[in-house]
Specification:
heterodimer, A: about 290 residues, mainly alpha, 12 helices, globular, B: mainly alpha, 14 helices, 2 strands
Chain lengths: ~290, ~325
Amino acid sequence: MTTPAASPSDRLPARPSDRPTARPSDHLTSAIWATGIGVFLFIYLPLVVVILYSFHDATIVAWPFKPFTLRWFGVLAQDSAMLDAAGASLKLAVLATLIALGVGVPGAFVLDRLQFPGKDAFERLVLLPLILPGVITGVALLTFFSFIGLSLTSGYPLVPGWPVVLGHGAALTSIVVTQVYARLRRFDRALEEASQDLYANEWQTFRYVTLPVIRSAVLGSALLVFTLSLDEIAVTFFLIGRQNTVPLQIWGLLRRGLTPEVNAAATVIFFLSVVVIVCWARLMREE
Amino acid sequence: MGSEYGADPKAPGAPARRTGLLDRIRASRRLTTIIGAALPVGWVTALLFLPYLFLFAHSFFRLKNGQLTHELTLENYGRLFGTSLYPNTILFSAGIALRVTLASLLLSYPLAYLLAFKVKKHRNLLYMAVIIPLWVSYLVRAYAWKIILGQEGILNGFLQAIGVIDQPLAFLLYSKWAVMLALVHIYTPFTLMPIYAGLESIAPALKEASQDLYASRWRTFWHVVLPLSLPGVIAGCTFAFVLSMGDFIAPVLLGGNDSALMVSNLVVSLFGVAYNWPLGAAVSVVMLGMTLILLTLARKLEDRMNYAGQAGGRAGAAKAGAGMGRGALHT
């Protein structure tokens, strides 16, 4: 440390009263607490407003709040376009998750264990959709699918459209790769060698040594991909064929006008997301 | 060459035990490896490399009478840089993104600091609470500001009810300020993640050492904590900037006439109603180039700041984490 303070004895009497944890009542600490709590409220208040107004007993979302009705959840449950969208979104999310796992887990092993020319480029490409604005990935996939002549509605009604399924798979594979790769890097390969020394074959080694280590990373990333696919807008916007997903359906509602039905949908989405996150957090704590 | 799922074939003892079958096992192992590697590499080539390449190629195609042809031309770029519309829009978006980034940083740093150093109980729970909104539909968060800021909206109604204003304030919604507010709201937790990871990994001993050497709290912060947290700050800011610059939903919902004018909105319209894919591709390529340059610079800068070793490793991991958008958190 290059603290330009003189020798301790010179300054001893003037020792500033630091040790922040010891005195919670001083100004600086209170200021930090106040700012932090303010930011926390800034993050949450808008969400609270949205959820509260899903119980709003009027057709227009406006002040004052009129408590309490469940009818907007009834309207939501009867909205056949929204239900179709929910079905499409679920299908899409399941397929995207399967693809992302099927490609992403081997992809993480490739990053962890293989050396080949172009590996660096491979790593950067895999991660690119995470860092780029969704618009760019969306239009890139659009130009590609249109060039090879894969129609956006192909596969409908079996799936919402192959391009959007492949697009989600491509954009979200990176999530699985990063999560599993991070786990593999911390994994001591000596354990695998020990297993082989104890005459386990490769499959047994993978099944009983490697897999348990990456298990929670795999499941956790699957949950993430699933949620992110449900919420994805930018790539979906460009690739969707005939059947809207939930976010696009909500977007359509928003442009027509604001009714508490949107709030009801938002509330459902919020609590489903929280459930998924709690599962995710438990998985992560498991390690 | 290591095998995909198995142990390192060079592991001591392994060859001696498997004589005889050795060649066959080696061959089959190599086959598994090749298949296991071909899948992800092929996938990434087909569905990421080729699409980005096609986007690039499209930016050189010529549009003739509204028809896309495969003749090569530079006129899309000529048009892009020849008129003031596109450069101005790009600069405008960058300006918005810059302000959003700074505001997100100013909001998230104190909260991250609080979580990392001041909160003793339930720290993980609180951290989760801060980043939960990242998983909650992006659209919901943008929508929240629409109902809050609207002319008939909740804020106007509230202010009128308590008598602060007589007439609803019309300027709240449908302005670039509304867009920026929503983007700050969306990207603050995002910026917080790598900053928190960086702060949290600072060994308490370093702070204590600084204080034992009679540094004041300001000095400790300025000379110890802040430098060690910079890699996280850079990571968070880079992502907030890139993603808010590329946003096209918030401007449509909250921006009104004047600022559905972010660069991504131009791309959306060029690929949609305006139907000029080559020009849209050219604009996207410029965005892509800017993003890549920025990311490279950020990476260089972070590498230089990672001199302090201990924070560097974790903050680097956090950067990879934050990369995935809401994805990764700290792993």
